[in-house]
Specification:
single chain, mainly alpha, 3 helices, flat
């Protein structure tokens, strides 16, 4: 039972960290000018493809791959659609 409790606590810890990182990325994207976001979108697409290749050759669950694909899609859409707070 101790191992299950430890795993549950670690999962909860990771969820909290992920939410904090998501909030940070959202704030950073809102402050970026549109041209910088366009460059970021291109770089993110390349890096996501590299990560996808790594995941395909790693021993990870289908749940991990599905979460990766879902969040890459969500983040790509957000990068493209976030309003430019630097515009006047």
């Amino acid at each position: 039972m101790k191992n299950l409790q430890d795993a549950t606590e670690k999962i909860c810890d990771l969820k909290g960290s992920l939410v904090a990182l998501d909030a940070l990325v959202t704030a950073l994207l809102r402050e970026m000018p549109a041209d910088s976001r366009a460059a970021l979108a291109r770089s993110f697409a390349v890096n996501a493809e590299v990560a996808r290749t790594v995941l395909l050759h790693a021993t990870v669950s289908d749940v991990t791959v599905a979460a990766f694909e879902r969040d890459v899609s969500r983040m790509s859409t957000f990068i493209a659609q976030v309003p430019d707070s630097t515009a006047s």
